[in-house]
Amino acid sequence: MDVLYHIIPYLKLAHDGLEAGIYEFLEAHTPDWIIHDFSPHWLPPIATKLGISRAYFSILNAAFAKRSRIVEQSDEDKEDKSWTIIVDWLNKQEKGTVVYVALGTEVNPSREDFTELALGLELSGLPFFWVLRKLPSGSGDGNLEIKLPDGFEHRTKGQGLVWRTGHLGPKSWLTSLLAVS
């Protein structure tokens, strides 16, 4: 579920309000492991204090397989022309060189910041794979379409791949996630 941009600060406050209750629960039930993401920044010290092992799970870190091909397709993927375009482009890049950019639902840069990011990718000269999504209604400046700087895609043709998705739904997220896993 996507949360409207202006509501995210309240979600974070509510999440932080769970700290005392989670501590009591963990103290009473002592699980063997806790798997967590970045949200409960207060969880690692609690787990350490209670002697509970933990694992940090993040889909934010892009890693490429150490194979001759960077990305391999399943039979189902081969039927999806868009997936084939992504795989073909990634497999032409040198291993470990592609910059993966996918701003999550909590990141809503201003038009100026977005332009700076685009121009920085262009000037870096590095190959990049950039997943762009439509912004949810209620986002920052209210503009639902993300507009790249004029001529950006033409100037970076061959250097990078810009992949546009609809509003971040399950299939579009899966595609962007699978492209780098």
Automatic annotation (TrEMBL):
Top-level taxon of the source organism: Eukaryota
Natural source organism: Rosa chinensis
EC number from the UniProt entry: 2.4.1.273
Descriptive protein name: Putative soyasaponin III rhamnosyltransferase
Gene Ontology molecular-function annotations: soyasaponin III rhamnosyltransferase activity; UDP-glucosyltransferase activity
Record-linked InterPro entries: UDP-glycosyltransf_plant
Lineage: Eukaryota, Viridiplantae, Streptophyta, Embryophyta, Tracheophyta
Enzyme class of the recorded protein, top EC level: transferase
Keywords: Glycosyltransferase, Transferase
Coiled coil location: none
